Amino acid sequence: MPKKERKRLQVVISDEQDALLTRTAYELSSPERLISKSEVVRLAIEKIARELGEGEHLEEYRAILETEEVGEEEA
Question: Which superkingdom (predicted)?
């Protein structure tokens, strides 16, 4: 069976965001299965896309992104 082809995406994240990813991966992990930070990112993408498709949280996500853009521009 051929291996599933995946696209790679590189993004720059803050130390705080990396810590959130690490903590989330740890919390989702179990003794039987460790969850990677990449899996957390994929899960978040699917969750956000599903919510937007259902018309949920659109303004909330926009507000978060606008706040983050201001913080990034100041850096």
Answer: Bacteria
